## 1
Amino acid sequence: MNSGLNEERETAEVKDEQRMSDSGVDRGLIAMFLKMTPEERIQANDNAINAITELRNAFRQK
């Protein structure tokens, strides 16, 4: 019964390894961003900057 679950985990691990290049670059992440329009990529970057700023401010208030 658990063998199916184990096979799924092993398959997922292989897929994760295939996504990573020898230098550690996540090819899946690159592909995801290349599917976005330039505007979508800028928005994703802005969202990341905003999240980092919020975390930094929260840490400073501690």
## 2
Amino acid sequence: MGKVMAYQTISQFFNQHDDITQLVVGVFDYNGVLRGKRMPIAKLSSLLESGFKMPLSIIQTDIWGRDIDNSPLLFETGDADGQIALIDRTPLRLVWMAEPTALLIGSFVDDEGAPLALCPRGRLAEMQARFGDKSQAICAGVEMEFHLLSDERPAPAASLATGTISPSGDTLSAHQLDDYDNLFADINTHLDAQDIKLDTITSELGRGQYEITFAPKNDLVTLADDILIFKYLIKGLAKSYGIRASFMAKPLMSEAGNGMHVHASLVDKAGQNLFHDDSDTGTKTLHHAVAGILQFMKASTLILAPHMNSYRRLVPSSHAPTKICWGDDNRSASVRIPASSPQARRLEYRSAGADCQPYLLLAILAYSMAEGIDGALSAPDPVTGNAYDHDYDSLPVEMSEAMQIYATSTAIQQALGEPLYSYYLATKRQEWTRFAEHVSDFEYHSLSHNI
């Protein structure tokens, strides 16, 4: 690499944790899955000096880790390696591993250390820079829902305290949190070490469903890193307790689905909220941002809902907004302006599932807000009452429809750039095809005897 990094944060960690004997190094792919290698601590000095390499094609693999058919990253290039630079953040101790192990994450870069155009993290940095160039920043926090499930069958996990399974969901129940006190205590300990700040952990509507709220920060790239690190952390910790943490949009058909809600405001270099003007409705800038989000939401559904399962969540009257509209303190709208003090004025982007790739989600959000603000787009009137009952345009109801709309959207192509736009679409098409080729047991038994 042409650019040598200091890696002060990583170096300081290993100076203070000389018991580490193993490293896991990797990158997050288009599904947010960590793809990487395990290596001994003796490799640390060479990692810090020159990074590491993996096939470029690994970032585009499908959800099963398979190559994408006819990808230009494969045989056209000889399945060439790409250079990966480490991200200088505190390594994550993987306490569930047999040996003392730490995780280092990286990103594909060119010879000068600049992000490659196929890299979602790099694209998010570019979208963030549209505001930085104007001495502004999107200040964002995230509410993310997940399920704790049995590791043996599709069902809620039993309480770690009592061994029983809750007969129903219990929204905002302190007792439900007590059932997994040790797990949540472990999460807090390790997130503190990562300097990942949480606002809350709560129980949610579904059985075995919980929500974690990330405190707002002015750096979307670091926020997305935090989300992916958290997912990896809780999956590993849950496994050590004999249960499974899942961010599937709809893991259990009888229970509420898992969303990822982004709360966003716009601040200047002095930290002043540019959505706030002492009025009851907020500034024109806020309404331009809302208009931009609404304009590009339908075309970006494949990012908000990236899997076949995602569309089981996006159904009417399900706490997952399906109508493209906005409203004041209205959770049935896809964009909500929460009730707050004027100083805390913000928008809430509500339709994305917890299964989406956070680099891509936040890149689309930043692009949409920037286009709305720069173009002074006008937002429609806010919805009143139940948005599901209104005749607004709706998000696609199936993944095939979302792919078709994405594939013809010049705006999304502009937002993601090439080749990321095309590579992501190819990945989703391959995944959709494989799911579509499988007949479920329910489908088979329902039809085979009588049809």
